[in-house]
Amino acid sequence: MNAFDSDQDRVVHLRAQIVIHNEAYHGRDEPTVPDAVYDQMVRELAEIEERRPDLLTAESPTQMVGSAPSEIFAPVEHKAPMMSLDNAMDLQELQSWHERVLKGIGDPDSCGLVCELKFDGLAVSIRYEDGELVQAATRGNGRVGEDVTHNIRTIKDIPHRISGAPEVLEVRGEVYLPISGFESLNKEQLAKGQPLFANPRNTAAGSLRQKDATVTANRKLAFWCYQLGEVIGGPRVKSSKDTFELLKSLGLPVNPEVAEFSDFKEVERFCESWMSKRHEPDYEIDGVVVKLADLAQREALGSTSRAPRWAIAFKFPPEEKSTRLIAIDVSIGRTGRVTPFAVLDPIFVGGSTVGMATLHNEDQVANKDVRPGDIVVIRKAGDVIPEVVGPNLADRSADSKPWVFPKVCPSCQMPLERLSGDANTYCVNRRCPARIETGISYFASRNAMDIEGLGERTVRSLVEQGMVNDVGDLFALTKSQLMKLLVSDSSNETLVNNLASAIDEARERPLGNLLIGLGIEHLGPTAAELVARQFRNIDNIVRAEPRDIESIDGIGPVIAQSLRDFFDDADNKAIVEKFRVNGVRLDLADDEMDLPQVLNGRSVVVTGSLDGWFLTRDEAKKSIVARGGKAPGSVSKSTYALVVGSEAGQSKLDKATDLGIPIVGEAEFRHLLETGELS
Ligand code: IVH
């Protein structure tokens, strides 16, 4: 290897490491390297880049001041829209679709159907001009996606140049992370003591949408193409078969599991057969896509505003697996609610490993009649919370006994209470250590005060040692106290320093976040932001009468009374005083006051998961409110825009489409927050 190659390798390695440490640092509960080691890496990278300007890229961490730049990905308008697919949840729905198609094309004898696997990844469109890869974009909102060209270029399956290609060729397909790649990535995470990735799909999406393409390069992503976008020149393509043949002849990756049928029975058989062997391939699939084979027929059937009529996704039902229920335990929430949950022999189901599942409340356990030791059926679909379906009675041992809901709190030993007419049971002891612990963890969570490094174990030790009795005490903790508590069991001084500075940083969190962290009943993130902006400091809030609070547009009497009750409590008032003494910000910061009110009077609805976006869903709602807008939960004719993440609710999408309300993705939402306008 010559010196030039080794520089290149070193740069790739350093950038990947720096980005990983940045992520670890800004994420939650992740140990990081000492600052000195991190600084040394950045310095070494900068030195190489100075010596070798040809290796310098705009995305290099050395070129970024502080955190990420505000515009990570440029918007790309799709020449032909990237549509979604309608779903068939069972064979009956698939049949109804088929009947509609037959009616639509008017000639039942010439209806060829092609079946493809439905890959669970991330849709992208890749554009070649004169055989040269010139641009790649995510689907985004279907009209406008994000420019991920640099990241796409790191995927081995995707050629940078193809010979014999039409003048313009847009190839569409799914970027995915092979299961083997996902597993080895998690092995590396484990070895590094870093948190595991949840599932291959989210990891693929997160890996592709990286500022630094060297991170993408290290993630071993792959690609299957299944569709053409804009095409100028090249051979005439009349069918699905022609499309795949063209793609294959150009060296593009086409999945081999494609089959064409004229008999609908065969289509059903294909779907059923893949349902039972869905775990065989080294990539995740969540269904079968059935399409009309003939492109002229597709053209004739056309599309709705969202999805083509000529294709449908037959979705596999939620997965069910059996495993042993080892024990039933209860957890105590910050409000004192006692929730039973099943401790399971860990099992891989619905795309992730499940070791616990909620059982909701006492009645649910009784109705399902699940008992410790039972073999139970677990159901899970995608990101949905796993559910215990019920026991397998044939496997139940003769001496099994029904589980009995505890009479006393496992944490404070005080009697538990269940009021008649209420399905929930509560620990009503406000000094219960478990309640205090969950309250503190909630306060420290990302959506509230975001105190990195204050994990559950640390919180428990702090409460057990009597160092912290409520969230107000956190800000009085000294480094030497933390040292005593943490160094003995982890012998890691860096952890203590990091936690101390995380607590310091949290003193400056916005007032809205502080209100969220207090866990006031009924006060969600949007309402907290509204209250903070209206009253501007905590003293005004502590003094406010319900009628003043209710006068805020978007706040009702229940929230108003709950705030009043909260601050009527002497213990809660004392927490506020502890904040004050310990230098916690109790008013709006200057930059919050100055935020341009670009969304004044506009109502923006957020739906779906914003996983991998530049902000979380709660942050999105707060950002809308902080700019003078409203963020209600449902779409109406006065909605200005619908912000759509992945797995968005179909009913909201349909309603927005019917009412002609603009549907926006990440890039457009960013623009909307900056300007108040739709791009
Ligand atoms: S065709 C106009 N074929 O599923 C129709 N999509 O739920 C374009 N997907 O956005 C899509 N495998 O990301 C098609 N074999 C396949 C697919 C597939 C996965 C994805 C694609 C699409 C989503 C809709």
Helix proportion range: 25-40%
- Rg over CA atoms, rounded to whole Å, is 28 Å
How much of the sequence lies in strands comes to 15-25%
Count of individual helical segments: 25
Bound molecules: 2-(butylsulfanyl)adenosine
**What is the residue-averaged pLDDT?**
87
Globular, elongated, flat, extended or rod-shaped: what is the shape?
A: globular
Task: Give the biggest sheet.
Answer: 7 strands, antiparallel
- What gap, in angstroms, lies between the N and C termini? 49 Å
Uncertain stretches: 24-31, 65-71
Q: Which structural class do the helices and strands define?
A: alpha+beta
Number of strands: 21
Characterization of the model:
The protein is of the alpha+beta class and 679 residues long. The protein is 38% helix and 19% strand. It contains 25 helices and 21 strands. Strands 12, 13, 14, 15, 16, 17 and 18 form a 7-stranded antiparallel beta sheet that branches. The two termini are 49 Å apart. Residues 24-31 and 65-71 have low confidence and may be disordered. The structure holds 2-(butylsulfanyl)adenosine. The site of 2-(butylsulfanyl)adenosine (IVH) has 15 residues, from strand 3, strand 8 and strand 11.
